[in-house]
Write a structure and sequence with these properties.
single chain
């Protein structure tokens, strides 16, 4: 789609990998490769460099970034001095991810000679063969979500969850904060009609104000 729109650059959050078979066969002249910005684990930089090489063969100019904002992760691993060392060497918080982005960019430009050594083997006590077996048994069809109505019915039957609210996405007026459906109320007290009516009045009021300004 980006190519059809004649985008000048495209950002590829290659969190799950980018191979020649599954990745694009062409890109805009300027492209950006994104490393995972959501989890707390170190990037396998040598593997990431190989992934980036696929992209550099397809675009004239490649930049390296994170796949998203780093607000999802802690700021700096240096603030956690008491972590187990076997765990610590596998972590990357926001500060470390920035360093990884720089290292990956240099590796794509200058080669992998300056990359850090590979991680040590995972301690045997960490290995859970049963979990690994279940992960290995996953197939693409297991990762595809079914129809919403079907998923909602299963979730309700298993979790008896209260109705969700998206009030936080809207202006936090006093009226809207006091409308039923807010977090903290009993499920039986939550109601969508009142929230919808409050939002309707809010939008109508904003439209009236706008009409006086134009």
């Amino acid at each position: 789609m980006a190519l059809r729109l004649r985008a000048g650059a495209v950002h590829l959050p290659a969190v799950a990998g980018l191979g020649r078979e599954s990745g694009p066969n062409r890109t805009p002249d300027r492209s950006s490769l994104g490393r995972n910005g959501r989890n707390i684990w170190r990037t396998g930089l040598r593997t990431a460099t190989a992934t980036g090489a696929v992209l550099t063969a397809l675009a004239d100019h490649v930049a390296v970034s994170t796949s998203c904002s780093l607000l999802h992760v802690p700021v700096d691993l240096a603030a956690e001095p008491d972590l187990d060392q076997d765990l610590r060497v596998r972590l990357a918080f926001a500060q470390q991810k920035v360093h990884e982005v720089v290292a990956l960019g240099r590796a794509l430009r200058d080669g992998v000679g300056g990359l850090p050594t590979a991680l040590p083997a995972i301690p045997a006590a960490w290995r859970k063969d049963g979990v690994r077996a279940r992960l290995d048994a996953l197939r693409p069809e297991h990762l595809r979500r079914g129809p919403y109505a079907q998923r909602a019915a299963i979730q309700q039957a298993r979790l008896n969850r209260p109705p969700p609210t998206t009030t936080g996405s809207f202006p936090q007026t006093t009226e809207l904060r006091q409308a039923p459906g807010q977090p903290g109320l009993r499920p039986e007290d939550r109601g969508y009609p009142e929230v919808e009516q409050a939002l309707t009045r809010l939008v109508a009021g904003a439209a009236e104000i706008r009409s006086t300004l134009t």
